[in-house]
Amino acid sequence: MRYRFVVGNWKMHGNRASNRALLEAVVKGIDGLEAVECAVCVPFPYLGEIAGQLAGARLAWGAQNLSEHAQGAFTGEVSAPMLVEFGCRYVIVGHSERRQLFGETDCVVAAKYAAALAQGLKPILCVGETLSQRDAGQTEEVVERQLRVVLDSNGKKSLENAVVAYEPVWAIGTGRTATQEQAQAVHAFLRARVLPETRILYGGSVKPDNAAALFAMPDVDGGLIGGASLVAGDFIAVVQAAARAAQRKG
Ligand code: PEP
User: 177 C-alpha vs ligand 1 centroid, how far in Å?
Assistant: First the structure.
């Protein structure tokens, strides 16, 4: 069985006071929903405090990016060993915002994925097409390439310790979600290229009102949640939807 997994991506949001309140509410709200593993990927400066707050809680934490280098003269970068020191279990790699706004290529993403694994962090590898690529019928070609470059250099077996997230770029932060059929089609395509137990998350404007339909799809194992992870009630409702899907799908 593939465990359901819901991950919050806070992006560059939050402050110390609001983080504390949000996490307190989320930890309470997910109590009893053991069928779903939950995590939050937070901005670097908050990792220390959040590690303290979440110690012993069922909510894991991680980062949204890392350097492909373990140490050295890389001003402004944060390495995998540093994330490990702060108790991170997960790190997002290849988010479309990193690819589009910070020029991360498939090769850089593959190196970051390797850097995470080398330190025992589980990378959450994001793949997804832009709207123009979808309109041009290139969705499968794009996600296949993004996945292949990472697996060519890290091996398919590396997926034993990784998670894949399908995030259509046109659905991220836009309020426009892939239909459950669109999501399922790409997830099934990816499923054929990963290990049977690999969890494939869907990300792109997942909210309490569309989560159940998406999570009901056979190859959607959970979600990578941006905006809705900043509102405790919304994030909890998404986890509840994943828990109900887990009950139904097993
Ligand atoms: C994301 O940040 O990866 C994301 C999917 O954002 P949103 O849920 O806001 O679309």
Answer: 10
What is the tens place of the pLDDT at every residue in 109-126?
999 999 999 999 999 999
Answer whether 64 contacts ligand 1 (Cβ < 6 A).
no
Q: pLDDT of 182-221, one tens digit each?
A: 999 999 999 999 999 999 999 999 999 999 999 999 999 9
- pLDDT tens digits for range 93-114: 999 999 999 999 999 999 999 9
Q: Is the CB of 94 under 6 A from ligand 1?
A: no
CA 2 to chain centre: 16
**Ligand 1 centre from 204 Cα, in Å?**
5
**What does pTM read for this prediction?**
0.97
The pLDDT-based confidence of 250 (bands split at 50, 70, 90) is low
E strands of the chain, at which residues?
4-9, 36-41, 59-63, 90-93, 122-127, 163-166, 200-203, 222-225
- In angstroms, the CA 112 to CA 38 distance is 22
Q: For position 154, which CATH number holds?
A: 3.20.20.70
- Structure token pair of residue 237: 């409702």
State whether the beta carbon of 8 lies less than 6 angstroms from ligand 1: no
Report how far Cα 27 is from the mean position of its chain's Cα atoms. 19
CA of 231 to the centre of ligand 1 (A): 13
Neighbours of 56 (CB within 10 A): 6
Number of structural domains in the chain = 1
What is the three-class DSSP state of 12?
A: coil
Q: How many CA atoms lie within 13 A of 177 on its CB side?
A: 24
The domain in which residue 98 lies consists of 4-249
Residue 246 tokens, joined: 């887990």
